[in-house]
Amino acid sequence: MSTTILGIESSCDDTSAAVIRDGYLLSNVIANQQIHVEYGGVVPELASRSHQQNIIPVVEAAMKKAGLNKNEIDAVAFTRGPGLLGSLLVGTSFAKGFSLSRQIPLIEVNHLQGHILSLFIKEEGIEKNLPNFPFLCLLVSGGHSQIIVVKNHLDMEIIGQTIDDAAGEAFDKCAKVIGLPYPGGPVVDKYAESGNPDAIQFSKPRIAGLDYSFSGLKTSFLYHIRDELKKDENYIENNMSDLCASLQKTIIDILMGKLRRAVKETGIKEIGIAGGVSANSGLRKTLLEDAEKHCWKLHIPHVKFTTDNAAMIAITGYFKYKAGIFSSQDVSPLARWNI
Ligand code: KG4
Ligand code: ZN
């Protein structure tokens, strides 16, 4: 018998619904909230209001695209956290209502676990090698930068994480300093293509163990811009590509330094990446080079599964459904929630 899961994601500024049947993706619909661009970042109040407007049409579109009707859904999975509370409340309330009215199980999903398990989403007609356990996952998003030992679908251990800003935050905050729109990561990636990554040296953190830090880089970037603008008021426009390429290289160097160390310390040579920053073309290229050099087995997700989406929530729901792990109707969202 087949198992069909409806997934709901509303942790930040994207409203998404997806349907997964037996691990295969049937649909994944995402409504991006453009409203935040003019504010240079996500405005929580506006995000929850947009989720409220988007959630029903997005779910209907996902059902239609999957070619299913509601009584063919076996369980509904939703992001319980971490994320913005007002945003999470919309998806949580919707999932509760859906589960109650259809009399089907409700499954809470940790958003970070979802990012990692996106590596297991299968698509009809697309050949893909799924990761073997244990593997290391570099999870890099707007809110998190972690190195995780993935022991099983539902058993994961964080062995390194940021002590301040996340990698995505470093991209976004530095991009804002040079007048680029939010989210800055993809725009920096684009400019970096034509820039010199060694043009400018920014400071790198010296943090013990496998932990990360990105707040020093942000300050170093800010001071560099401030000093150069004193000499040339058009410094940013004249050096945009080099600035972006050098910033991107510094972030990649920081991420890769600790990942290489984690491989050495754990002896695990199977690596996955996940989260919005894993869409970065420079990071992907560096990983491929390292994999070749050090004989790593690499799992790089399709770009559409790197930023927030409900397919990753549905696949996690699928594994929890198989393990018989369900939630009760009194579950409430968690703004903070570790894997
Ligand atoms: O995973 P995600 O969609 O949301 C969170 O859970 O945080 O990640 C969003 C982050 C943003 O900081 C965005 O700038 C970054 O992912 N991002 C990128 C790229 N695409 C998205 N960063 C660098 N290069 C990219 N191509
Ligand atoms: Zn995310």
Helix and strand arrangement:
Layout: E1 4-9, E2 14-21, E3 24-32, H1 44-66, E4 75-81, H2 85-102, E5 106-110, H3 111-117, E6 135-140, E7 145-152, E8 155-161, H4 167-177, H5 184-192, H6 215-231, H7 235-238, H8 240-266, E9 270-274, H9 281-294, E10 297-299, H10 311-323
Parallel strand pairs: 1-4, 4-5, 6-9, 9-10
Antiparallel strand pairs: 1-2, 2-3, 6-7, 7-8
Bound molecules: 5'-O-[(R)-(carboxyoxy)(hydroxy)phosphoryl]adenosine and zinc ion (ZN).
Strand content: 15-25%
Helix fraction bin: 40-55%
- State the order of secondary-structure elements, H for helix, E for strand: EEEHEHEHEEEHHHHHEHEH
Please report the total strand number as a whole number: 10
What is the CATH class of the largest domain? Answer: Alpha Beta
- How many DSSP H or I helices? 10
Helix/strand class: alpha/beta
Q: State Rg.
A: 20 Å
Bound molecules: 5'-O-[(R)-(carboxyoxy)(hydroxy)phosphoryl]adenosine, zinc ion
Mean pLDDT across all amino acids:
96
CATH architecture of the largest domain: 2-Layer Sandwich
Distance between the termini: 30 Å
> What is the domain total for the residues?
2
Structural shape: globular
Largest sheet: 5 strands, mixed
- At the fold tier of CATH, the topology name of the largest domain is Nucleotidyltransferase, domain 5
As laid out across the biggest beta sheet, the strand order is 3-2-1-4-5
Written description of the protein model:
The chain has 339 residues and is of the alpha/beta class. The protein has helices spanning 44-66, 85-102, 111-117, 167-177, 184-192, 215-231, 235-238, 240-266, 281-294, 311-323, and strands spanning 4-9, 14-21, 24-32, 75-81, 106-110, 135-140, 145-152, 155-161, 270-274, 297-299. It has two domains: 4-127 and 305-322, Nucleotidyltransferase, domain 5 (2-Layer Sandwich); 135-301, 2-Layer Sandwich (Nucleotidyltransferase, domain 5). It is built from ten helices and ten strands. The protein binds 5'-O-[(R)-(carboxyoxy)(hydroxy)phosphoryl]adenosine and zinc ion (ZN). Residues 111, 115, 141, 275, 308 line the site of zinc ion. 5'-O-[(R)-(carboxyoxy)(hydroxy)phosphoryl]adenosine (KG4) binds next to α4 and α5.
